[in-house]
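Worked Example 4.2. Consider the chain below.
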Amino acid sequence: MMGLLQTIAEGGCYWRRKEDSPGHSFAVPNRTPFKIAIEGPQSNRFRQGECRDGYFVSDEGVKHLSASEAVNTIRDISSNAFLYTHFRIDGRWVLADKIRESDWSKVDEVEEEALQIAKDIVGSVAAKRKSDADDVRITRAAAKYAMTNEAIMDLARSAVERRKDMASLVLDLDL
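Applying the procedure from the previous section yields the following structure tokens:
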């Protein structure tokens, strides 16, 4: 499996874990099919699409910035799109909830940190230029920028290492 930055730079779809959510972030390669359960997690009725150039694109051609947006457009609004979205991976459909809990899909912590650092920089430049770039375009540009900028990768490695060191101190506290 290719790294997070390369997957995003090549048009893959990134599903970033929210801080209060279980599991981890993950990315699927460009052109990965997805399907969304229409009537609930156990539904046998689906609407399909594919990850295309960082967007979740329905078979009807509608581009969504995220899987959550796609789920909320295709079916009733849901607070947990992980339970409704499946991706076609290695010839089988895999529920997003299983992907975010699986070790095989875990993204590199340093790459994810580098992406966020680069995304802050790229987003700031886009805002100053009054660009109409959406979050997907900014994320893809940030992935490409991070891949080619060793200073960002060094900063990300340092941030991850510092966070781990700080976490070890918390373990020593009497909580």
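Residues 150-171 form the longest helix (22 residues). The two ends are 39 Å apart (CA to CA). Compare this with Example 4.1 before moving on.
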